[in-house]
Amino acid sequence: MTSPSYTPDRPLRLGTRGSPLALAQARMTAEALCARHGWDADAIATVVVQTSGDRIQDRALAEIGGKALWTKELDRALIEGQIDFAVHSMKDVETIRPAEITIAAMLPRADVRDRLVGAESFDALPDNPVVGSSSPRRAAQVKRLRPDARVVLFRGNVATRLAKLAAGEVHATLLAAAGLDRLGQPDVGACIPLDVMLPAPSQGAVGIETLSGNAEMRALLAGINDVDTFDCVTAERAVLKGLGGTCHSPIAALGRLEDGGIRLAAEILSPDGRERVEDVRIISRGDSAAAEALGRSLLERASAELRALFEA
Ligand SMILES: NCc1[nH]cc(CCC(=O)O)c1CC(=O)O
């Protein structure tokens, strides 16, 4: 390791939610920064910030204000100078961010797939299965695969959801493989192939934000940025933007590197899963306009009812 270019004279304050998954991702981020810059572990201090999303557990996120509930308290802590950077699951970060805040880096992406927990496959579920999920995307995808399924609201952190499943509240639930892996539970559930279920935009990616005006912090974070993850996730987020930015409707998107560009797949569904509009295109890295256009093209081909969901 060469000598560090910059050694903080006080610990850098890393802001994070307090859930076990958030803390695991915060630890991964701190370790990556210390390894990259040759710092001791005490160069970074973890500041836990409780978010509205953590506090409100009995209602679907879409109903009470969406993804901002995971970020707004951390945004405020950044803007008020209580933390130097914030670590998020990119899946929980809104498409449009305040101008003062920049996504400065992403860690290498984990497994992007969802896992079905409680059954080996959708076919193996009993008749009229009850599936727990509060994600509009997963609910619509489940109903498309199993029109006899009933999807019930299921919130709480990963451990809470697994406990509800074990208690028999539902036949099955869906969880991101990335979250389970990072929590040390790689054997829970069966991975769903990507051609059966396309994941949420940004699934499996950890992002790090700082103030747009903090050039020093941006440079330190750039040192741990995984460019491949950053480009693919940025394309997926641009699809969301093309679909109207802050919507709470069933949307899936996945970008993967292919032939020097990004193979970008996306779909929108009606809540009952009966209608699905999908598209796949190869776009150039960094071509957000092409990714946004893919999102818009889905809407153009959707029925009036489905389009109305996105215009609301
Ligand atoms: N608030 C839900 C959320 N946000 C990020 C993850 C998992 C990690 C990821 O997808 O990156 C989860 C749980 C889940 O979907 O199972």
Distance between the termini: 53 Å
Strand composition percent:
15-25%
The tally of structural domains comes to 3
What is the helix fraction of residues, given as a range?
25-40%
Overall pLDDT level:
93
What class would the helix/strand composition place it in?
alpha/beta
Question: Count of DSSP helices?
Answer: 11
Tally of extended strands? 13
CATH architecture of the largest domain: 3-Layer(aba) Sandwich
Q: Strand order of the main beta sheet, please?
A: 2-1-3-10-4
Detailed description of the structure:
The chain is 35% helix and 22% strand. It has 3 domains: 12-107 and 205-225, D-Maltodextrin-Binding Protein, domain 2 (3-Layer(aba) Sandwich), CATH 3.40.190; 114-191, Periplasmic binding protein-like II (D-Maltodextrin-Binding Protein, domain 2, 3-Layer(aba) Sandwich); 239-301, Double Stranded RNA Binding Domain (2-Layer Sandwich). It has 11 helices and 13 strands. By secondary structure, the chain is α/β, with parallel strands linked by helices. The chain binds the ligand NCc1[nH]cc(CCC(=O)O)c1CC(=O)O.
